[in-house]
């Protein structure tokens, strides 16, 4: 599940970057209003902005939702891992206490 979300996350990130780079800025509207660039567009004079804007919004929404999901998954994954480590440490300390030699051992030279 984590790997699938990472792949979709990367595709959405590349999609947002590509769509933002393809779009024209606000300053390009002045030249297009006088007919300078309207004949060269694939989607028509007004269609490309609307389509690209909607696709950018969709990719950005997917990007943010998956960002939150991956962050939530990684937080809960680390908490479960820490809990297992705490349980193992507790088991090891209870097992090791029986192996500790007594402090009053007479074989130890002074």
From TrEMBL:
Keywords, in A-Z order: Cell membrane, Membrane, Protein transport, Translocation, Transmembrane, Transmembrane helix, Transport
InterPro entries the UniProt entry points to: SecG
Cell compartments where the protein resides: Cell membrane
Pfam families referenced in this protein's UniProt entry, alphabetically: SecG (PF03840)
Its membrane topology: Multi-pass membrane protein
Major localization listed first in the record, in broad terms: membrane
One GO MF term: protein-transporting ATPase activity
Record's GO cellular component terms: plasma membrane
Record's keyword annotation contains Transmembrane helix: yes
Domain of life of the native organism: Bacteria
Region (Disordered): 84-110
Composition-biased stretches (Polar residues): 87-110
UniProt-listed GO biological process terms: intracellular protein transmembrane transport; protein secretion; protein transport by the Sec complex
Transmembrane regions: 51-71
Annotated family: Belongs to the SecG family.
Physiological role: Involved in protein export. Participates in an early event of protein translocation.
NCBIfam families, alphabetized: secG (TIGR00810)
Name of the protein: Protein-export membrane protein SecG
Species assigned in the record: Aliivibrio sifiae
């Amino acid at each position: 599940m984590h790997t699938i979300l990472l792949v979709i996350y990367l595709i959405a990130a590349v999609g947002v970057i590509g769509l933002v780079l393809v779009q024209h800025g606000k300053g390009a509207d002045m030249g297009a209003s006088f007919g300078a660039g309207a004949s060269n567009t694939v989607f028509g004079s007004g269609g490309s902005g609307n389509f690209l804007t909607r696709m950018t919004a969709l990719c950005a929404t997917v990007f943010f939702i998956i960002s939150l999901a991956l962050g939530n998954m990684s937080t809960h994954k680390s908490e479960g891992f820490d809990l297992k480590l705490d349980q193992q440490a507790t088991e090891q300390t209870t097992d090791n206490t029986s192996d500790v030699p007594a402090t009053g051992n007479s074989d130890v030279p002074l």
